[in-house]
Predict the structure.
Amino acid sequence: MQLHRNFLSLALAAGILGLASCNKGGGDFSKTKTGIEYKIFKNDGGTKYSAREIGPDGDATYKDRLGKILALDVEYRSYKDSILFNSRKQQGIPMRIELQELKVKGGLEEALSMLQPGDSGVFRFNVDTIFAKSFRQPVPPFMKPAAGKDGKPSTEPVYMTMFVKAQKLQTREEAQADQQKMMMEQQQKMAAHAEEQLKKDDVILQDYVKKNNLTMQKDASGVYYMVTKPGTGPKPKAGQTVSVLYKGSLLDGKVFDSSEKMGNKPIDFPIGVGQVIPGWDKAIPLLAKGSKATLLIPSSLAYGQRGAGADIPADAPLRFDVELVDVK
């Protein structure tokens, strides 16, 4: 079982997501001796919550939770209130954190030590402090405002906000069994959704082909492809490394990525090992070296129901214009 301890590494990889489960009630923030601003709400039954006050020395009951696993939902927001990471939408299951003795205070670890199962919490951290204490790395540029017209950075404190819903406390064995069960259920749901969405996407792609007067072939996987310039070299086989120039766009024409943005440098990857979206592993081997082609990829063979960042929505079929530059 993976117990995530570096929250920001997840946040940076996750993209833009949302959270609805955490109680973001009103009232002024309380503040710990170490500078963490917080609001904590205990569950009084059902949907009823009331404020939980924490003593100046923290939650005295935390010592009883040491070594246990806390299942929780987490969301991070920047100083602009833009969502950096949402565990429920990104992962589909709660995060699980091993609660340990606090060696450094004023960071994420201390914030979590204040929560009891069932609590909802809102925590606000000075970004300079949280990066120094919990992440031990410089603050990324996007986490702070750009320099003003005079070229000087703002001297005002900048904050990052964390919303947490503490679900339950478990032993390591209980957490492992629970996580495995939930992951299996999540995989079954995703597979069922993908199968149904593939049918919907096929209707959308057929309509796109017709409206754009394209002459395309359909692979057994559901990928549509059209060779616009035949190549004369070999077709790649599983395990071989290919070099591909590409432009990726939504069906409305909006470009979300391209080799041009990377200095027109091809992307290299081995075929059939999952380093790219499944649609590419299916479609690229259909092309001979030197070919140019247009690919239409169903969402289930692209980024699925979670999408990718701010540019690719959930359940979005995609178009790629590609050139198979080399096969190694």
